[in-house]
Amino acid sequence: DGKQTTTKGKTSAQRRNRRSPVEILQELKDKRERMHEAMMERLSRLDERIAKLESRHSSKIKLTELVQTHSTEELQHALESVRKQRSLLRRALKDRLGS
In the prediction, which pLDDT does 81 show? Predict the structure, then answer.
């Protein structure tokens, strides 16, 4: 058929047009960098969506976390601590404004 073949079945013209390992390596590195940049952009957009959702529903998220991670007794104790702290803060503010 007129083509020169090597032991691996490739023509000598195909062997001459083969890219060097350095070229292939650089191409792969460039491709990886492009993919990395694209994924970072996508992750950034996703992070923005997550932040917006968290800020929009922060009370509901916090309530769900408290209910799932604390017992009724722990929640009651925390509420009592907050009430005491609030009372102390009011007294401190009253003393500060009164002096």
Answer: 97
